Amino acid sequence: LKLTTMKILSILALIVTVMIPPFALSTSSPLRKRRTYLADDRRIHYEGRWDFIAQEGTGINIAQADWGCTAVHFQVAAFHDSSRVFSVSLMSIFSRISVKVTRFDGKVVHEDIIDQFGPVDYQIRLKTKGKYMVSFRKLTQPAPFGYGIGLELAGSSRVQLINVSTRRGVRLMQYKPQTTRRIQFIGASDMAGFCVDGTPDTPSDVATQASFMVTNCDEALPGLISEEFNAETSVQAESGIGVFQNALGSVNASLLGPFQMPELFPRTISVQEEPVYDSSLFEPDLVVISLGGNDFNNNPFPPEVSTFIDAYENFLLQVLDSFPENPPTIVSICGQGSPEDLLNPFNNRCGPCPFVEEAALAFQTKYPDTNTHYIFVTCDGSIVTGVDDIGCESHKNALGQSRVAEFLVPQLKDI
């Protein structure tokens, strides 16, 4: 990363977190006869890993998250002929947030993406009476500038929910879950949705220094597979992350930081060691893991295969130990590249797959009572073709991600 760019980003982060009051509202007309629901109201449902913190000076709890695909859901009833308006007060730092409002009959009546940084007062007017599901989902990965010097200078990507306010004619209902399963996704850039919203023409400095503008986990495997299974999701994914070492290993440690996924996995907020996440809050039926590529690709000093296998075994045990009462099914995947990747000596997505497969099968043999599986996603062009399905930095766009999801879903259903 260029230091001058990081200085600018650091100043931006300082402005939106310190100089702008966190409860500032937009200049739109005030809500009349407004009712405010605070972030810890039981009618608000949180998906993924969230932390509640007391707002300085007020003691009021707000909710914050940085992992990708974390979401806020609530259900509203619109019953008045006028003033069917509600407002969501957020703080958004280096994040993009999708907004979706769906009638209970399944019709989507509002979709949008918030890409404004700082305080957000997002208002929605419902045109007709009825009951609606409202969702705000964070699309961006937690550390777009890495866990090293970039984190120190510019900070992380995070979202805070302050409150939900309703005008006369709208009220929040008791939340009733709409999903039937739970799936956890763990991985690196492909799982985080890096460059899903980019194109091959996206400048490299934009993709790498402002990755929050091109990352979209909802159009990547976590969002696509969860929708297919009607599942709630939890995503722990970050570009460049590895199991034993990150992309470029010690050469890039100052940028990506000293942590690999085993260190990040227990965290509620990925950039904070505390609090450790309470795994009982989300016990998945299925865990999909896409890790191992960065340990070998873009690395002048790849690990010994036996060292990687030991690290992979320890991480799978770490995941299973998080759910001692209800151990989930674990599926390790590898590949997902286009034919062009096979010609790239530095980032051949299928190159490390024999080592990942060996690690996954060794685990199955050593721990036969666990329900673990391995799926290879070939790079021969039969899945990701390299034609119209590549975003920026040789990563898949939404079409490429959907092709991988279409390949995986039938196999996941058979497990």
Automatic annotation (TrEMBL):
Domain of life assignment: Eukaryota
Xref: InterPro entries: PCW_deacetylase/CE, SGNH_hydro_sf
PANTHER family cross-referenced by the UniProt entry: ESTERASE, SGNH HYDROLASE-TYPE, GDSL-LIKE LIPASE/ACYLHYDROLASE DOMAIN PROTEIN (AFU_ORTHOLOGUE AFUA_2G00620)
UniProt protein name: SGNH hydrolase-type esterase domain-containing protein
Organism in which the protein naturally occurs: Helicotheca tamesis
